[in-house]
Amino acid sequence: MAGNELRPVIKLRSTAGTGYTYVTRKNRRNSPDRLTLTKYDPIARRHVEFREDR
């Protein structure tokens, strides 16, 4: 399936050190570098930066 290679499943790991992760997909053509998003960490109870963990 060619669709799975273009949009791989990635893990977004919290930079707060709690170990909390989000699982999502990304388009490799639009964002070939590591993805960084600000999302809510329920363990830290605040918004923190989540970085891509392959």
Automatic annotation (TrEMBL):
Gene3D superfamilies: Ribosomal protein L33 (2.20.28.120). Pfam families: Ribosomal_L33. Keywords: Ribonucleoprotein, Ribosomal protein. GO terms for cellular component: ribosome. The keyword Ribosomal protein applies. Belongs to the bacterial ribosomal protein bL33 family. This is Large ribosomal subunit protein bL33.
